[in-house]
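Lab notebook: predicted structure, single chain.

Context: the supervisor wants predicted structures on file for every construct in the current expression panel, including those that have not yet been purified. This is the next one on the list. No modifications to the sequence; it matches the entry in the shared construct table.
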Amino acid sequence: MSIKSNAFGRVELTGADAKKFRAQATYGRPKAAAKSGAAKGSVMARELQSSGTVKLKLRATA
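Prediction complete. Output recorded below exactly as produced.
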Protein backbone atom coordinates (compact mmCIF):
# COMPACT_ATOMS: atom_id res chain seq x y z
CA MET A 1 0.00 0.00 0.00
CA SER A 2 1.60 3.23 -1.14
CA ILE A 3 1.03 6.44 -3.01
CA LYS A 4 3.66 7.49 -5.53
CA SER A 5 3.89 10.98 -6.98
CA ASN A 6 6.41 13.08 -8.85
CA ALA A 7 7.16 16.74 -9.52
CA PHE A 8 4.76 16.84 -12.46
CA GLY A 9 1.69 15.99 -10.37
CA ARG A 10 1.10 12.37 -11.31
CA VAL A 11 -0.20 10.21 -8.49
CA GLU A 12 -0.18 6.40 -8.53
CA LEU A 13 -2.21 4.41 -6.06
CA THR A 14 -1.08 0.88 -5.37
CA GLY A 15 -2.37 -2.09 -3.41
CA ALA A 16 -5.36 -1.64 -1.13
CA ASP A 17 -5.59 2.10 -1.86
CA ALA A 18 -5.99 1.41 -5.57
CA LYS A 19 -8.71 -1.18 -4.96
CA LYS A 20 -10.58 1.14 -2.60
CA PHE A 21 -10.37 4.06 -5.06
CA ARG A 22 -11.58 1.92 -7.97
CA ALA A 23 -14.55 0.64 -5.94
CA GLN A 24 -15.43 4.18 -4.82
CA ALA A 25 -15.24 5.52 -8.38
CA THR A 26 -17.40 2.67 -9.69
CA TYR A 27 -19.98 2.16 -6.94
CA GLY A 28 -19.72 5.23 -4.71
CA ARG A 29 -22.50 7.77 -4.35
CA PRO A 30 -21.76 11.50 -4.43
CA LYS A 31 -22.56 13.61 -1.38
CA ALA A 32 -25.33 16.18 -1.57
CA ALA A 33 -22.79 19.01 -1.43
CA ALA A 34 -20.97 17.58 -4.47
CA LYS A 35 -24.22 17.33 -6.45
CA SER A 36 -25.14 20.89 -5.51
CA GLY A 37 -21.70 22.22 -6.44
CA ALA A 38 -21.77 20.44 -9.80
CA ALA A 39 -25.22 21.85 -10.57
CA LYS A 40 -24.13 25.39 -9.69
CA GLY A 41 -20.99 24.97 -11.79
CA SER A 42 -23.04 23.85 -14.79
CA VAL A 43 -25.24 26.94 -14.50
CA MET A 44 -22.16 29.16 -14.29
CA ALA A 45 -20.58 27.46 -17.32
CA ARG A 46 -23.74 28.01 -19.40
CA GLU A 47 -23.86 31.66 -18.30
CA LEU A 48 -20.20 32.13 -19.22
CA GLN A 49 -20.76 30.62 -22.67
CA SER A 50 -23.83 32.73 -23.40
CA SER A 51 -22.81 36.11 -22.02
CA GLY A 52 -19.04 35.86 -21.61
CA THR A 53 -19.21 36.85 -17.93
CA VAL A 54 -20.07 35.25 -14.61
CA LYS A 55 -21.11 37.05 -11.45
CA LEU A 56 -19.88 35.68 -8.13
CA LYS A 57 -21.24 36.64 -4.75
CA LEU A 58 -18.72 36.17 -1.97
CA ARG A 59 -19.82 35.40 1.52
CA ALA A 60 -17.95 35.92 4.74
CA THR A 61 -16.78 32.84 6.57
CA ALA A 62 -16.58 32.61 10.32
